[in-house]
Structure formats: structure tokens, C-alpha cells
Amino acid sequence: MGPAHEARDDGGGGGEMIAELSRSLETLLAAERARFTAEHPRSAAMAKATAAHWRGGAPMHWMNDWASPSPIFAAQGVGAQITDVDGKLYDDFCLGDTPSMFGHGDPSVAAAVADQIKRGAGFMLPTPSAAIVGKLLAERFGLPLWQAATTASDANRAAIRWARAVTGRPAVLVFDGCYHGMVDDAFVVLKDGQPVMKPGLLGQVHDLTATTWVAPFNDLAALEDALASDQVAAVLAEPVMTNCGMILPEPGFLEALRRLTRDAGTLLIIDETHTISTGPGGYTRAHGLEPDVFVLGKAIAGGVPAAVWGVTTELSARMDEAQARIGPGQSGIGTTLSGNALAMAAMRAMLTEVMTDAAYTRMLAGAERLVTGLRGVIAARKLPWSVVHVGARVELVFADPPPRNAAQMRKVLDHEAVEALHLWLINRGVLIAPFHNMMLVSPVTDDAAIDRLVAAVDGFAAQVGEME
């Protein structure tokens, strides 16, 4: 598992060792799958019934992306725990892959949503909460002017469209390995150093590489080369990459990104949908970033579908000028449900009562406990692993040192080992994000849950160690 085994594959028996470990992992997976199936008869029955009417067996195909042989059907979530239909209790470190980052069933959000739904979910008109939410967003994140969307995908699409309208340039630059929701422009990666459309992309009839440029994260020379052209309208970036494993920015990289984009007349869009785990004002406020556009989805409404994006006063004026040049008609930006009354009520509760400084203090302390515990396991068992984190978001990486870009991460991402770890954790009452080894700590995650997660990882490491 990880680069330690790759390093041994030198013709001197390393290949056989990798093959033996792979067979051992498959044996472990078979045993863990059998255990899951035996312990989840109701989920298995529901999965069979659901498959009769939901394509792929679930309302959304990602619900099938867990390591379990069939989906876990959730009965309820309370705080940082989920109970499934078989009565199994889980410590939840996935938290809906961020929408429930502050815990399930928060009383403040529940009360706000219940009150608003009785008075109407949406009117295509602003509500009194809108005025309050706008002020709170400006105060918290530093950008003065905002718009609402239904998802971060929608917000990113709007930001890209406006960037092209304002600059008159066709291209957008993203980083290899990024993910910004269902934004077509972001589905470009590097293969052997060349931009290609992301493998598996469905139904795309246009060559996205014509207007999407891609650079490796943390590669200033590549970034500078890309921005030397006058064709790039915007750079769309997470300040910490979180979808291909977690990749931290190297010192000075983000500062250089801001300087280079300004010099090139290129707008900088910072997508904080995941990095809001950093602190109350996101990574942007914590590290003094100065984006032209700030995007935030998922957690902002406590799980109610909603997103927001903010712009500087200067960019807002340029948007007005672009709108005047283009003239009246349909902009193609926005959906009917964007900014609805229900979402505004939920955002108001989140910004005033849930996403507090005290909540972040608890989250960050819990994340430090988790990081310390995982690093203790790694040190005690002399594993070629590492731990990286941004605020309350923690990643266990099967490599040491952690990769600095997506190309390096792809080489060490052992999908079989990831699947084995995830199913091992599920069978021991722990959920982490299903796509790699990402873990979120909420303000209502208690120390005992963190310790159970660490102990479960240690148990997995011990089992794998016996196989080698």
C-alpha cells in the first residue's frame, strides 16, 4: 500500500510482494463484505426494492459510491452520528460530504426552516431575511456584494460566465485534479502533461480543452506560462485542493497566484465550498486572500440546497458595464429556486447561530486531536503514510511525504486499499467521505468518537501489517 511498496518493485521481488498484498486485501474485503451483508438485512432489502425504480439503485448515483456492497439506508442523523435502518449507529465523519459539517438536525436551522416552510418556501421575491443574510455575508467574508444560487456548481458557472463577459476573454484556467461541481469548464485534466477531457465524462460534444486550460497545482512556472496569454478570463481554484486527496498550497503559491492574475488582467475565483472548514471566514479570511469572486455552497444553509457568491465593488461595476454593452434579454444566469425564502431562512440561522467562532474553536480542537491520533498510529506502526488537514477537514494519505500535485497523488492513490479501509471503518461504526480518505470534524463531534476513529484506523493498519 502506497509508495513504500512501489519503491520495492525493482525486479528484485517487489512485484511479487505487491501482488501478495493485493491478494491479501481482496481476502480482507471479501470477509468485510460478508460481515456487512450479514449485519444489514434491511438495507439490503431496501436496496433491492429501490433498484426497481431508481436508476442505479439510488436517487443519486453517488449514493452507491460507498465501499459497502449495497447502500446504507439512513434512518436519521443527530449531531455527528447516523443511525441506519438496521439500527446500526455510526460516528459520522463524512457529514454529507460537507453540507452537514456543523452536525445533523441542528435545532436552530430546524426551527428556522420549519417556521419558513409554513409561510411559504419561495415567492420569486426577496424576504426580510435576505437583507440580513447579505449583510452577514459581507461582514464575514469581506466581499461587499452577493448573489444566491442553488448549488456551488451554479455559483461557479455564473462566476465563469460573468468573468468572460467582463474581460471579453474565452478561456478559464483550472488546476489539474480539481473539482468544482457540475461545471463543464472544470472537467479537464492533465495526461502526460497534456490537457484532456476528464475520463468518464458523459455527453460532452464540445472539446473543453479549447477554452479550459489546466496547470498543475503548486507549479508557478506553469501558471505564469498559462497567464502570459491574454486569453484567460479567470482562474477558478480551491485554496487547498480537496478532491484528489488533499493537496496543500506550498508557501507563497497563493500569493503568487493573486499577483500573477492581477498582472494578467485575469479574475481570481476562489471556491471555498470545502475549505470553509478553515475558520469562520474560510481560508480566504484566515490567510488574507483577495479574490475577485468568492464561492461557497453546501454548508452555508446547513444542508438545505443553497450557495452564494460574492464580488468586489470594482468587479460589480464592470459587470454593470458588461450588462449595458450586451443589452436587454436573457443572461442565462440563475435558476428559479435561487435565493428562495427557505434557503435564506436556513442561511440566516447558520450565519447567526451555528457557524460561530465558538463552533469553529470546538471543530478545530477536535481536528487537532484526530490529526495527533492518526500521526501517532503512523509513527507507532512505522507506516509510509501521512496526514494533512485544513481546519476541521483531515485527510489520511497513503504516501509520505504527501503529494504536491494531482499527478503525484494519482501515483500513490491505492484504490483497493482505500476501499478496504472504508469498509473496515463502516463495519466498525465509522463513516468517512467515500471518495478517498477525507474526514470532517463537526462542533458536535465528541472526543470519544474521534478516539474510536483512530482506534479503527489502527486496527486496520495492524491487519494490513500482518498481511505483508
UniProtKB/TrEMBL annotation:
Keywords: Aminotransferase, Pyridoxal phosphate, Transferase. Pfam families: Aminotran_3. It comes from the Bacteria. Its cofactor is pyridoxal 5'-phosphate. SUPFAM superfamilies: PLP-dependent transferases (SSF53383). One of its GO terms (molecular function) is pyridoxal phosphate binding. Gene3D superfamilies: Aspartate Aminotransferase, domain 1, Type I PLP-dependent aspartate aminotransferase-like (Major domain). This is Aspartate aminotransferase family protein. The keyword Lipid biosynthesis does not apply. Belongs to the class-III pyridoxal-phosphate-dependent aminotransferase family. InterPro entries: Aminotrans_3, PyrdxlP-dep_Trfase, PyrdxlP-dep_Trfase_major, PyrdxlP-dep_Trfase_small.
